[in-house]
Known about the structure:
Rossmann fold; about 35% helix; globular
Amino acid sequence: MYEAFYENSGLLFPSMVESIHIYHEQNPHKTMPSWEKIFREHGYFFLNPHPDITRLAELFKTHGVKRILDIGCGTGRHLVYLSRMGFQVDGFDSSPHAIALAQKWLDEEGLTATIREHLMERSFPYPDMSFDAVISIQVIHHNLINDILFTISEIVRVLKPRGLIFIAVPVLGPKPVSPEEDWQFFQVEDGTYIPQSGPESGIPHHYFTEDELCEAFNRFETLEIYVDSTDHRCLLGFKRGNKIVTPNQR
Ligand SMILES: C[S@@+](CC[C@H](N)C(=O)[O-])C[C@H]1O[C@@H](n2cnc3c(N)ncnc32)[C@H](O)[C@@H]1O
């Protein structure tokens, strides 16, 4: 069964969970294969920023936010918007092609942001308390839960005390025929599935319940948790206290 799955998905490793890690170790660019493929085939993926970005930018201004990190910045729709709004913006993504497209877009608009290739399940390449806010829109769910929890610990580390976060992740169901059903999801752990077909074939998707998302971000005070107009679960919050967390280096 596993062999059949891997033949279908293009990931030719015997153990499903292990294979995700092995893939990262062996891939010279340490890149999710399918996202790089998606960007190479489709170019700019999203052009309009998240529907709540105007409200968020206003909140960031009110809270004195200056420097923002965009985790999984993709082709740059939020880098461009936030840079245009006068914030100092950093971003990273696993896809070199997405980064190149984001840089092109910024250059065309005469805007600046510091972007690099990086995997979110690796130690972030920034010192402690570098950012006033972190956003990650439709990204952090693309991993197994242990890796997601590591990513969250890195968000805590690089955020300043009382720094703001805005996270958006997809919601599974409850539409009668969800697009996910067509993707032939294969469950690899509680709440984590890998589609066997469709554009995101081979990429893990963890589906957070509301409670689980709050628990995963329990180092944050939740200001809002809601499902947005694009059917993604959003969490807006700020980092509690001022204790510095230094997770084990990877
Ligand atoms: C749905 S796209 C969202 C892109 C962007 N946040 C936006 O809203 O336009 C998901 C993004 O996550 C990136 N990604 C997936 N896995 C990643 C990983 N392990 N580390 C860093 N980025 C990753 C993909 O390359 C892709 O750009």
